Amino acid sequence: HFAPLQKTVASPGRGILAIDESSATCGKRLASIGLDNTEVNRQAYRQLLLTTAGLGEYISGAILFEETLYQSTTDGKTFVDVLKDQNIMPGIKVDKGLVPLPGSNNESWCQGLDGLASRCAEYYKQGARFAKWRTVVSIPCGPTALAVKEAAWGLARYAAIAQDNGLVPIVEPEILLDGDHGIERTLEVAEKVWSEVFFYLAENNVLFEGILLKPSMVTPGAEHKEKASPEAIAKNTLTMLRRRVPPAVPGIMFLSGGQSELEATMNLNAMNQSANPWHVSFSYARALQNSVLKTWQGQPENIEAAQKALLVRAKANSLAQLGSYTGEGESDEAKKGMFQKGYTY
Ligand code: 13P
Questions:
Q1: Mean of per-residue pLDDT scores for the chain
Q2: Does the CB atom of residue 287 touch ligand 1 within 6 A?
Q3: Whether the CB of 20 sits within 6 Å of ligand 1
Q4: What is the mean pLDDT of residues 143-168?
Q5: Whose CA is closest to 298, among 28, 55, 33, 17?
Q6: Residue 75: which region, alpha, beta or left (left: phi > 0; alpha: psi -120 to 50)?
Q7: Which positions carry the signal peptide feature in this UniProt record (predicted)?
Q8: Counting Cβ atoms within 10 Å, is residue 337 exposed (0-12), middle (13-18) or buried (19+)?
Q9: Partner of 127 for a Cys bridge, out of 29, 80, 96, 157, CB 3.0 to 4.6 A?
């Protein structure tokens, strides 16, 4: 059942466009260019992104928020149909966001298991074929054993329920960039988190061939004194993945997590310099959207230029998936970091 889908989502030279910001988070994106957070503005922004001609050459899947899954373009074509015509698989964010985790060290847990089976069934009917659940782990807060266990268990329960309703689950325990720790500490925490995630995935009888992972790259904390090279990030990240992720898993689709557009692309490229047991690609939100938003500014006359900016990023990451990105001709905007301390989605 899941095999044809994976061939599409994890296909060479393509990755995922994450535009599943909740309405509140989409409001932050719009506010950054002075737009009000109205349904009309959210529709206009998603329409700009999804109707970009030729996007399907570089993008295999798009993660949507519920509102977008049921929304249409201003011409009345459903976004699901827009995606199908672009050969892009529609996906859906199914978690209900983060709340404080009592008994922890100021950490969070991810809500959304109640009613999840019936929501997944409805999303499938509406055209979604994969799902996403994002929970977070904070290194400076510990992480406590409780927070890691809760994150792993929640992801595993979600994955089992999504598969049971025909959706391929993207498993995303985001290890936040926050902190001044070195890369070795991130490696250690990532190994711990992924070992628990796979332990509970197995305990919940999740089919490993029918999931996708959305890990953070293994980098130093954003406030660490030194930056790491793409080669060092690739080495540590691949070491962690090889130690923890069975080759039965078809695809690794990284998040960008506050890296600049350029960093996210260069790091992905470094990871594809030799063959990997899994498809190693991208599922970026911020690192695909930043220069698009800056170019658009909410002005109809800028739509074309903004769509070009999206294609530039999508193509760069497509090349990085193939390991053949050179970094030539990148704009200054693409080099700007997007890390914000304590950022919440
Ligand atoms: P970023 O690439 O902005 O970290 O987004 C990841 C994500 O989970 C959104 O779907």
A1: 96
A2: yes
A3: yes
A4: 98
A5: 33
A6: alpha
A7: none
A8: middle
A9: 80
Burial state string for 101-117 with b = 16 or more CB within 10 A and e = fewer than 16? beebeebbbbebbeebe
The single-letter DSSP state of residue 73 is -
Side-chain-side CA neighbours of 200 within 13 Å: the count stands at: 19
Q: What is the Cα 63 distance to its own chain's centre?
A: 8
Ligand 1: residue of 32, 170, 345 to mutate (most ligand atoms within 8 A of CB) is 345
**DSSP secondary-structure letter at 210?**
G
Q: Is the CB of 219 under 6 A from ligand 1?
A: no
> Which atom of ligand 1 lies nearest, measured to the CA of 134?
8
Residue range 26-70, pLDDT digits in tens:
999 999 999 999 999 999 999 999 999 999 999 999 999 999 999
**Ligand 1 probe mutation, 17, 256, 339, most atoms within 8 A of CB:** 256
For residues 60 and 75, what is the distance between their CA atoms, to the nearest angstrom?
24
Question: Amino acid letter at 18?
Answer: A
Between strands 59-64 and 15-19, the pairing is: parallel
Q: Which fold has domain 2-335?
A: TIM Barrel (3.20.20)
Cβ of 270 less than 6 Å from ligand 1: no
- Compute the CA torsion angle 116, 120, 123, 129 (nearest 10 deg): 140
pTM for this model (two decimals): 0.96
Structure tokens at 269: 């490229």
Residues noted as catalytic: 172, 214
Atom of ligand 1 nearest to the CA of 257: 4
Beta bridge partners of 170: 132, 212
Atom 6 in ligand 1: residue holding the nearest Cα:
255
Q: Between β-strands 15-19 and 279-284, what pairing exists: parallel, antiparallel or unpaired?
A: parallel
Task: Decide: 330 in ligand 1 pocket, CB within 6 A.
Answer: no
H/E element, 56: none
Predicted confidence at residue 8, as pLDDT, reads: 80
Ligand 1 nearest atom to the CA of residue 288, by list position: 2
Instruction: Tell me the three state secondary structure of residue 335.
Output: helix
